[in-house]
Amino acid sequence: MSASTATPPPVQPRDPVDDSQNRRPQQYSLAKGVFGVTAAVVAIAILFALFLPTVFSDVISTLNSTVVNSIGWYYVLLVTGFVVFSIVVAVSRLGSIKLGRDDDEPEYGLLSWFAMLFAAGMGIGLVFWGAAEPLTFFASEGGIPPNAAHLDAPARAQRAMGQTFLHWGLHAWAIYVVVGLAIAYSVHRRRRPVSIRWALEPILGKRTDTWIGDLIDIIALVGTLFGIATSLGFGVNQIAAGLDHLGLLPNSAGVQVVIVLSVTALATISAASGVDKGIKLLSNLNLGLAALLLVAVLILGPTLFLLRDVVQNIGYYLQHFLELSFQTLPFMGDEGASWISGWTTYYWGWWMSWSPFVGVFIARISRGRTVREFITGVLLVPTLVTIIWFTVMGGTALYKSLFEGVDFTGEDGTIDANTALFDTLSTLPLGTVLSGIAIVLVTIFFITSADSGAFVMDMIAHRGDPNPPRLTRIFWASASGLIAAALIWAGSASGAESAGMTGLQALALLSALPFSVVMIGMCISTWIALSREVKIIQRLELRIRQREFVERYSDQLTGTVSDRVSADLASQVDARVQEQVSARLDEHAATTSEQTGPVAEGEQPRRSRNPFRR
């Protein structure tokens, strides 16, 4: 059959939103450039930390302090902007867009979805700082905010809780919303690969799949790896401190390394099993254990005080939200700048270093939910749970300190963050049992952070493959734990036990700076993409309304017009007939009169013939 006579293939209807038909099929494979550069950066940092731990810590800490002190105002303004962006998108028409096709249903149930995003988003840090941070802001030497040092104890305790909510509330989760929403839209709605670069496609265009996209993925991978390793370091310190507190094992560098390697092995097994098995199971288990510990402390602790405190803390947080959001303490001099950089700015950098991992992960598990449901679930629900968690854990510690005279500070006047939770639990009935539950909880948070992080990093390294190979998932899960173990061991060997982890923490914060620029691009891209789609939907809705109007009123209008026209025609016909009849009668009368003439006397007149009768 010749080309001229061949029947053309049927034209498939094209989704005005999804232009994936115009994009070449994505071939998933290991992005060697992204993987190689990331591995090289991590290897250099680890070797530097292993062989020159003190120099490594000093150089990185100095660089970090210089950068953070210079851009603290930028971080504060940027993260508050993320909160505003999230709320505006959620309440606007943009929030009605579904993250997937219009008929897609959520892949995971609400409880499992919430458990996985919460375990990945907060994880170890929530347990680690639950009692330690409010106590630090209340009583620790150097930890009290400079603008709260003059307050009396009750007011300072309330301010400590409010400051904690700032660091763990809406601002932290808004960072995750920005990254997760941009990726979820590009992956589930636009059918792009699961990768950071494709979230910027609306502004990068054809340059998305070039070296620019590779650079974006490299920044995300480096920040994610260092951020997870830093959090694992916190978890190891707390697990070791808890075992020492229970008298099971001494807290030493050797014990910490063994804990890291053991838990990393469990995380590797979980990562190898995938999201639907290991990660989902552990996340649900973790949520149950966290709820058990929370309820137990609430019941065994000052219950009435904590219930009253929850209500007041919510009000205090809302009342002082704007003040805390823009807090930079410029009139407190060097003391204010040092405190902001050590706490608020540090937290914003830490959340941003975690955001590629958390954003990709929650995007991966959020198909079928609307933008509004996504933002509400990721922003509001965890914030409320965070307020309850810190109120119960931190509020119990503050109650013991204020009303029972328990002194949680050490000899140097500071709060030991590693043992603050266990010290608080020891003041309650069944304190040993609660401490054991807390250790298990931290351990599972350790595992879920490492395995979900490995899953995400492998997706990015394989050009967005939603189901990357098992072997490389094992590699990433092992790498994060080995980095933490190597730095702990190096610090201990050099005599500066905190040198390795301090340097690693600084690297995580430094990696957040370039990624903050990427996040600004994500906000712009998300707004452009959602706005375009809303305009398309509005045009389609207008056409549908016009069609419905025509269908609804066409029969009625046609019948009305037809009746009016028929009535007019009928009246015109009747009038014309009457005119014709009258004219014929007049004409016949005149003709008859002419033909008959006058009637003779005695003669009967002849009847006129009916003109309408045959």
Automatic annotation (TrEMBL):
It comes from the Bacteria. One of its GO terms (cellular component) is plasma membrane. InterPro entries: BCCT_transptr (IPR000060). Residues 1-23, 584-614 are annotated as: Disordered. It is found in: Cell membrane. It holds the Pfam family BCCT. Its main location: membrane. It is a multi-pass membrane protein. Keywords: Cell membrane, Membrane, Transmembrane, Transmembrane helix, Transport. GO terms for molecular function: transmembrane transporter activity. The chain crosses the membrane at residues 33-52, 72-96, 108-132, 165-187, 215-234, 254-275, 287-307, 348-366, 378-399, 428-450, 471-492, 504-530. NCBIfam families: bcct. Belongs to the BCCT transporter (TC 2.A.15) family. This is Choline transporter. It comes from Brachybacterium muris UCD-AY4.
